[in-house]
């Protein structure tokens, strides 16, 4: 009888170990499936950093095309006008990036970037940029005047009760 009791304890112990192993394996599979793809070198900020560098380069080159490209918008009257406004304010000043801090507070496909740059005359630019990754490409959220799609209306922004 002692032999049989020992076998039952071994079976029970083995069954518990198997359950824990299956649970741990399932947790790893779920965590891997839910994580967003990183850049090829495994650094989720690499592409975001390059997008900000492209933004600074477009400013320095006074390139509306470069701003529209890094902003992920089509070349249209509204986007060209908005790019020209940005360039009138900050373009062609020989910016060099002094510091760039990237945070992924809202997930791996959204980044906030704190940028510190200095122009050729020594003036400082401090800016916080929002970046989004769509289909593997990081875009700087520069453009706010995108017209509503045909048949869609922008959301109302009135206060309740007014």
UniProtKB/TrEMBL annotation:
<protein>
    <recommendedName>
        <fullName>Lipoprotein</fullName>
    </recommendedName>
</protein>
<dbReference type="InterPro" id="IPR032710">
    <property type="entry name" value="NTF2-like_dom_sf"/>
</dbReference>
